[in-house]
Description:
Layout: H1 2-6, H2 11-55, E1 59-60, H3 62-75, E2 84-94, E3 97-107, H4 116-120, E4 130-141, E5 151-160, E6 169-170
Amino acid sequence: MRLLQRNREGTAMVEFALVLPILIVMFAGLFEVTRVVAANMRLEDAAQSVADMIAQQSNVSSSMMANFCEGGQLAMYPLSGAPLKISVAEVTNTSSGLVVDWSDTNCGSAAQISGVTSSAASLVPNVTDSVIVVQATYAYSSPLSLVLESSYLLSETAFQRPYNVGTITHG
Length: 171
């Protein structure tokens, strides 16, 4: 019995075998969380980039909107841009209240932005002020789903005031 108490040659290996699964799960969870956060940061950049590109124009056509959508998809790199869906609207403060001048859902999104006037209210305090509102969603799929869910629907909203004109026309 005394021989067993003194012999500690395999103790480190047994401890390592007990701790290793916990370390692997922690590493996998950290990997997954990092990827989701990075995807959300890319989505935020894509939404703001599209809003900024539109705000630099005085008129936005359908072909220009398609180019802006492609720019948003490129901002998602190295992730796939295919799951990116973007809705755009312009809200103007008129003498009779906030009005949606136009909206566009040609960037893969079937839904218009809900509550766009209330979300833009603080950004257009003066009559004739306008703001571009971009709502982007991204269906993120995790390559590794040991700890977290396998997919998340991420959403970001970006606002940008027009640079050169009071309101931007669409059509």
